[in-house]
Every structure is written in C-alpha cells, then in structure tokens.
Amino acid sequence: GAVVSQHPSRVICKSGTSVKIECRSLDFQATTMFWYRQFPKQSLMLMATSNEGSKATYEQGVEKDKFLINHASLTLSTLTVTSAHPEDSSFYICSASASSPDTQYFGPGTRLTVL
Amino acid sequence: GEDVEQSLFLSVREGDSSVINCTYTDSSSTYLYWYKQEPGAGLQLLTYIFSNMDMKQDQRLTVLLNKKDKHLSLRIADTQTGDSAIYFCAESIRSNTGKLIFGQGTTLQVKP
C-alpha cells in the first residue's frame, strides 16, 4: 500500500515553455501533498505544501507564479513550471500523506531538463 | 534555525554492519525518519521513530535516538550490495504540518 506515482518520469523542454508534472496517490486518499526539489548530490528542499481544495502554501523564496500547484482531488496534485529556464532543471519529487501529515510517501520523481 | 547534518559518505564490506549518523538542532522534533534513495529514484521510507523513544528495531534496521545530544543513528546489520544507496535522515519539526527538514544524505557504498 501507500504508492505514489509521478508522471512524466523524465521531460526535456525548450526554454520558455511550460511543463506540467502530475503526482497521484494510487491506493489512498492524500489530504496533503508536498512538492520538493532536489539538485544533484544535494538534499530535498520543500517547495510547497498543498491541501485538497485549497491554495498551496509556498516556502520562502519559491515563486508561486512560476511554480503553479493545483490539488484538485484527494488523489491528484499537479505542479506546473511556467516559462521554464535552464536554471529550473532539477529533480522534482512529490510526496503525499493521508490522515497524518507526519508520514509521507514519496513519488519516484521527475527529471526536468530545460534546454 | 532548523538544521540536519549527516556525514556524506560511508563504505563498508558486504556482511558488515553499517552505522549512519545524523544530528539535528530542533529540540521540538516530533518524528525522525530514515529514507533510502536509489539512483534516479524517489525516496523510500525505511523507518521512523517518535521523539519519546530511544530505540526502534525492524528486522535488519535499528534506529537509536539520543534526544539529549540530538543524535540519531541507523544501523544496518549484515549489509548487502543492494543496500548501496543514499540515506537521508529527516525531522518533522511541527507536528501535523508535515514539514520535513532533510539532511544532506549519506552515500553508502557496499563492497563485495
């Protein structure tokens, strides 16, 4: 149980385009989903927290107009990187929690490369 | 501020025990976690310990928590080549918010 999927697993796009990444909880209802960013050989940095049906809470320094998060249902959250630039290239990982936010289950990650 | 520190690299021989250490600064941590990340993959929750516990054992994994020193360790008994990965410790700093602070990750290399 507690499986989280992400799609796509890898995406390459041109500078200036927008990219949408999906995060799904497959066998449980996720009241809270989290989006992280991981640079090579570094730790995970929390970008934002989203609760179903409400606006996401962004961490300090994360541009909410650039990283659009939608949590429309209890099993799906999306992260859209708008007008992507090469510096947005990174590994994006989502996680989801059910009734207790203290236990998070992570997706496999999405590798974004912006040319 | 909140900070979690880990050593960056550990190399052991197959069959030996591995001990990965972590220190944290926030004394209000409620849960502390160990995650495993294999190359190009997401994080797999290995185990977690509640802050009022000293030890937790789960098969080959033993977690020790020294709350006074704010020190957490993960011991892997009979380490196998499949255990080679990056191990992250993380602390949950405010209960019921889900916010996790991660360490930098320890790369465990298991030599045959």
What does this structure look like?
The complex is a heterodimer of chains A (115) and B (112). Chain A contains no helices and eleven strands. Chain A has strands spanning 4-7, 10-13, 19-25, 32-38, 44-51, 57-58, 67-73, 76-81, 90-97, 105-106, 110-114. In chain A, strands 2, 4, 5, 6, 9, 10 and 11 form a seven-stranded mixed sheet that branches. In chain A, strands 1-3-8-7 form a four-stranded antiparallel sheet, with no helix packed on it. The mean pLDDT of chain A is 91. Chain B is an all-beta fold and 112 residues long. Chain B contains no helices and eleven strands. Chain B has strands at 4-6, 9-13, 18-24, 31-37, 43-50, 55-58, 61-66, 71-76, 85-92, 100-102, 106-111. Chain B is globular, with a radius of gyration of 13 Å. The N and C termini of chain B lie far apart (41 Å). Chain A binds chain B through residues 4, 6, 32, 34, 42-44, 46, 49, 93, 95, 97, 100-109, 111, and chain B through 30-31, 35, 40-45, 48, 88, 92, 95-100, 102-105.
